Each structure stands twice: as structure tokens, then as C-alpha cells.
Amino acid sequence: MRVVKTAKLTACVLFAFCISGCGPDDKKPEETAKAPIKMWVAPNENEEAFWNTMVKEWNKDPAHTPVEFTPIPAASSSEEAIMNALASGTEPDISSNIFIGFASQLVEIGQLEDLSKMSGFNELVNNRQMGKIIPAWQLNGEQHVLPIYINPIVWWWRGDLLKQYGFDHVPTRYDELYQLAERRAADNNGYVIQMTAGKNWWERWFDFIPLYYAQNGGKPYLAGHQATFADPAGQAVLTFMGKVFNSKWSSYDFTAADDPLATGQVLASARGPWDIARYHKQYPEILKTLQIGPMLTEKGDAHPYTFGDSKGVVIFSSSKRKAQAWAFIQWVFNNAEHDRSWLELTGMPPARSDLMSNPLFVNYFEKNPLEKAIASYVDVALPPAATTQTTEIQRSMTQMLEQVIFNHADPAATLDKSAQEINTLLAK
């Protein structure tokens, strides 16, 4: 989910403007009418399998404008590949794998269509049960991204180890974790939780941000070009995280490669559903012990808000086949059977609020209880802030965390400093 560095984005955009009028846009109308819809998709095996099935079925109907799809070209990130394509006039009509921060950048330079103005948009939102989900994806009151999936970030707990320390349920409150940690420390076993996902800026999506969403009832951490997390909720979260590290109940050096949850170094780790398939292959016995729990909060909440690792699909403004591209998108997402296929192939919950009630999905989740427990949080899993400054903002958050972890800095003062840095950045 990396975002292209600002300098590279600016260079690509300037180049794109310099060469406007060249490339695919110069095709004659009759050539354009016959040309296929070009689509780029996330470069991973499971998503490619889904789109391969969809495209083959769509293309069987001679009345449909055919679709050709390819994985997003190789680059240091999908975002960089797309910006390079925009600069050279080789972008597709449609692309999936777009997160809202990158969409903000594309909207700022006028590269995305407002889908809410397309015929049948409201019907699609209603048919796909997205009415409560779609507002969080608005950019300047417009709808440039249709979310495809939402991966709620939740705590994975080792149920076998919880029982070992006298817990017959997953902790939901900070003080419950403290109690568990003290029992663990008394047993001379050390760490209790993987409190941070890592040292990279994007990993704040899996620690501070979901904890903040949970503690403050789903309010944004940015609003009106201002940082809002230097508030009582932010102070509670950062104080909690600081206490865990200062008490040596976690390590900042844990990495995904270590997988301290699988090895039993910790009893809990914040994860998304994508790790289930890996555990099936690598740790099938450990998988049987796992229990899913909500983001921890000060007072405990059975169903708090969290972060949703989520991506969507867009139509580029340069497309000469917007209506045909939109017809294909509608065809895919108006059919709940297609979302069921997506779920089966990728393991990632579709962005719809009826996963726990629609018989199509209920039947699937009855056979996959761990996936069900995770998907039950789709309705409270929020996307990241819609900002063009994602990288810089979350680097400031990372420095904030490190000040508390390593220098034992005062959480309130550290929050204020980070918020001021971000406000200065957003004011430019």
C-alpha cells in the first residue's frame, strides 16, 4: 500500500500535462468504439483469478464491449506504475487496487471520474448494500472510488495461551491486557502482545490508527485539513501503548517475518484476513487455537470501530469508453454471486453491509468461522484519511510513537507536537 513519493508524483504529473494530447486520446471515434475496455488489477494470483472469471463471462455476450485485463505493471508500487502510465498516456480505462489516499492524489490532478454522476450509481449502492459504507469514501462530496473489499484489522488471540493464564475470553479493555501481562510476566514468559506492526509509515494503519478509531467512536484523525488525534482519545491510546512498551510487554523489533503470534512469543497480534490462508499452510494447528477480538479500548467495547485495509475500482477521466467501463463495473458488482466468488477466491470480505445476513454469505461463513468473526467488523472498519499527504502524516505518527517508546516522552506533549507538524504540512 505504498504511496509514491511527492517529488516523483509531481514530476509524473507535470510530464503528463506536458504531453497531453498525445497517445490513446488521439484515436479516431470509430477506432475507439471498437476498442476493448482496458483494465488493470492488483498483481496477485487470487485477484487475477477472480477478474479472469468475470472478464470471460462478460465477454461471452457479443452485445458487451469486450474487456481486456492485465496486472498492474511492475514498479516499486502500484501507485508509481499508475502515475508513470498517466505521464506517458498509457493508462487503462479502469483500475482496481486503489486506496483512498492515492485516489485523493489522482482527484487533485483531475484524473478520476465521479462515479456518482454515472447512470445507475444509486441503484448499485442499494443493490450491493453499501449505503452505510460509501460515505467514508467520498472525496470533496464526490464518489471517485467504488470500494471492492474491506479487511477489518482485529486482534488475533492465542486461545490456548489465554486459558493458560486464566482467561476464558479475549480481553477488550486496557486493564484486562495489563492483568494478562502481569500474569505472563510472573510466569517469566515475557511479551504478551505485538503492539506495533513495524517501523514503516504504512504500518500505523495496523496499530495507532485502528486503536484511535476504536477509542474515539470512529471519528477521523484528520478533519478540515487539521489533525484531530491530539485529543483525550489519542492521549488514552498513546498512554496505553507507552505503558505496554515501558513495561516490556512488547517489542518494537517484531516483524512480520518473525510472526511472534505463531511462535508463542506473544498472545495477540493485530491482523487482517489475508493471513488465514498462510496459517492454513504453515501453522494449521495454531490456526485452530485462534480467537478473534475487537480493538482494545479503555472501557471495553464488544464492537468498536477499527481500520479497514480496503481498496476500490476507478475509471480514469481520459477513458474514451467511460459508459462501457461503467456498464462492466455495474455488471460485476450488482450481482451478489460475484461477491461470493470474490470472497471464496481471495478471502477478503466484499464491501457490503449484509455479509452477516445475506444467505449467500451466511452459508459461506458457517463453514469458515474465523473469517466470519473478522468479517463481522466490516460495518465498523473505516478507510484511512482521504489526504494527498498520507506518507508524511504517518511518518510523523511513527516518530511520535518512537518518542514515547524509546524516550518515555509525555504522550500529551508528543501528540501535540505531531499534530502541529501535520497541521503545518496540510497548510502548505
From TrEMBL:
Pfam families: SBP_bac_1
Family matches, as SUPFAM superfamilies: Periplasmic binding protein-like II (SSF53850)
Compartments, record wording: Periplasm
InterPro entries: Bact_solute-bd_prot1, SBP
Annotated Gene Ontology cellular component terms: outer membrane-bounded periplasmic space
Family membership: Belongs to the bacterial solute-binding protein 1 family.
Name recorded for this polypeptide: Sugar ABC transporter substrate-binding protein
